[in-house]
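User: I want to check something. If I give you two sequences, will you return the structure for each one separately, not as a complex?

Assistant: Yes, each is folded on its own. Here is the first sequence with its structure:
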Amino acid sequence: MAEEAAKQPIIIKKIKKGGHGHHGGAWKIAYADFVTAMMAFFLLLWLLNSVTQESLEGISNYFAPVSTSQTTSGSGDILQGKTITEEGISSNATARDSVTVDLPPPKAGTGGDLSEGEAESKAQPTEEDLEAQAAKKEQEAFEDAQEELQKTLESVPQMRQLKNSLLVDNTPEGLRIQLIDRDGLAMFPSGSSKMFLHTERLLELVSKVILSMPQDISISGHTDATPFSGQDYGNWELSSDRANSARRALESFGVPDARIQRVVGKSATDPLIAEDPKHPSNRRLSIILLRGTGREAEKEKAQKAAEEKARKERENEALPGLNEIKRQQRQEDGAAAPVLKPEGIQLPAPNGGAPAQPAAPALPGINLEIRGDIKSQ
């Protein structure tokens, strides 16, 4: 028994503990989708922040439906159950109105919302609208001129003492500029139409305002009610001569004669201070920028500017690369400019010989043509 037991084999069991099983890579795909979605989300936020409000409204209007219907019958479509005939239109009692979506008001550039007639009426304002716009623009120009005159009188020390001698106001006739006499400071010597030096300086200041505006002017001379001592020369002649003296002074300062519409002498018929006809302030010169005149010149100026703009647009549209070509020509012309010698200048000859004649350009006139094109641009 002991021998059999010794011959019996000994069996040893070894148990190996292995790791967990393989779970696969599905989580990686889910994580990648999540990261992609977050990137798209932040990209969308950035795009919404960088686009203007008008563009967002345009995109919204593009995708917004004009009308929706919950039925496929004619009662819920465009005709809404009605016949096409103009007279005797019949309507289905059971028809339902289509649902209308309220859209925001159209912005510039959305287009297509107005009919052809309405769009034409909006694009072409009426004559009354043009007149109203011109009158408003003219009134604003008068106010700016009045403010500019007052600022100039305040800023120039030599003219500051004359600020009370210059009255500027808006009247139904136009912008009125008056040069008045004050106690101790007259515009003309007594009984004379030859103005003082300070009167000429005031008229020079007034002429700058006149030249900056397109209106025609009216010049009138005024006197007080004091009778003139001369028998053949009275206040009527004196006021007329002073008005003409002011006209000549304005013309010497550059005011065109064509812009002077009338020159009149009113004697004492239109006093500034009616309560005291003999007050010194009644002796004055009145220069009026007539309201409503000069608009033809403004229209011609605007028309020329529009024609020039249209010409440039046509030129750029017909030749898209013209500006780039001209720019290159200017660069080449500038690079070659130091080499060119002006005509008529003799160059010193080498070794004391006869002066060399300037070389003629290879293509006469080409430089002038290029410079002319550049100036026209």
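And separately, the second sequence with its own structure:
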Amino acid sequence: MPFVGLVVAIAAAAAAVVGWLARPLAVDPKRRQALSGAVAAVDRELAANLELMTMFDQTRQAVVLENAEFARHRETIEQEAGGIVSTVTTLYARIPQAEAAMERRGPANSLRDEDRRLIEGWEGDAREAQRTLRRSLDARPARGWSAVTARLRSWSPRR
């Protein structure tokens, strides 16, 4: 019988530890402010790029899209909202393709269908990236198993 009591005590202690580790992670206000600033800067840059694309749609004159703010704030976004960085990185990696498609014009500033699809696809993905960035600010602190794994990763030795 003492063996069963020991097993029950160990199980209760393990449950208490997991419960303690699963509590919501505290959000550092400075890190939250850094993420807010980074998201706002990239959001403004994407809005400016979409405005440039609107100008292209009206004039058919190629434009040069901006990418400095994402380069400046990429590290912050990776650290604080890592799940969205691949979407935004892919979008920014496609800027040269979109610019090249704008420069390839035919007679009377016409566009080939594949170039039009590429440009319109970039615009749609830019709008989706904006929405994703904005939603990242609404994310709640990690809870449950994700909080447990985050805490255990932060305690592990760095390599």
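Because they were folded independently, the notes below concern the second chain alone. The chain has a mean pLDDT of 86. The CA atoms of residues 1 and 132 lie 56 Å apart.
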